[in-house]
Amino acid sequence: MTEPDVVVIGAGPAGLTAALNLVRARRSVLMVDTNRPRHAPTLHSHGTLGLDGIPPLELRKVGREQVLAYPGAAHTTGVVTSVGADLTVSVTGQRGGPDLELRPRAVLVATGLSEVLPKVENLRAYYGTALHSCIECDAYEKSGQALALVGIGPDLVVRALEIAHWAPDLIVFSSTLRTEDEARLVAAGIGVEREPVVAIEGERAVMTGIRLASGRVVAREGGFVRPEWIPQVAFLSDTDAALDDLGRVVVDARFRTTVPGLYAAGDVTAREPMQIAVAAGEGAVVARTIHLDLLDALADFRDGLPIG
Known about the structure:
Elements: E1 6-9, H1 13-24, E2 29-33, H2 56-68, E3 73-83, E4 89-93, E5 100-102, E6 106-109, E7 113-116, H3 123-126, E8 131-132, H4 135-138, E9 147-151, H5 156-166, E10 170-173, H6 179-187, E11 191-193, E12 197-203, E13 206-212, E14 217-219, E15 222-226, E16 228-231, E17 262-264, H7 276-293
Parallel strand pairs: 1-2, 1-6, 2-3, 6-17, 8-15, 9-10, 9-15, 10-11
Antiparallel strand pairs: 3-4, 4-5, 7-16, 12-13, 13-14
Helix pairs in contact: 1-2, 1-7
Protein name: NAD(P)/FAD-dependent oxidoreductase
Keywords: Flavoprotein, Oxidoreductase
Organism: Gryllotalpicola koreensis
């Protein structure tokens, strides 16, 4: 394979948008992706103009086809095992994809986040249909239902108050709430259950309730979970790329990392998952940054280049 100008690691909204803009800037681009996105269980993606309601896997398929329609664009199915200090990218092929070792001029990390869901029996069976993690994406469809919020985290109260805007019949299931946080939720008309959750109950794929450790079942039609989100960046360990205390890649306003030629955009830089439109917007910005950084004529203006 001819060495591409840019290797894009991850083909979600950020990576695909960056790749599209880069090939339109006449840069050769190789996208490396496993096609196993975090949001695959979700039936529909919402909140993106012109694409509201599109299935996530369909969005990725269409985006990939549009990028590959341009000369200089390529895609391979595989896992990036390492990015070297000299930007050498090592790829282990999957599902027929070849093993590769590449030395591009630039590398974009757009691998997103993985989710660690609460350890609750049957939760995954309802995740993406009755239960979701993205409030902005899915709360509208839950309007007026009897909902649950399950999980832990410092933002649980904020999430509960936000969800209650769409569905006032809300119960928070958490054993770690501070007394003052519970009082605030109760004052807002939100219920609190401190008993541990052990299972999601349902009939014929329809969620009917939350089963607690005592065996008691609290009737609920659906709800939200608060996962732990983990950036996928282990392959950067051979670089000097700075990470923050949550393991996210540190970038500047133009999405450059602390390593020359290495960039990052999308969820891999975020505290929690972004909406598609936001991640795609970052992909467009970082594509312009990469393109301008690769223009030798602009080398003396690197720090003064406009963002957009």
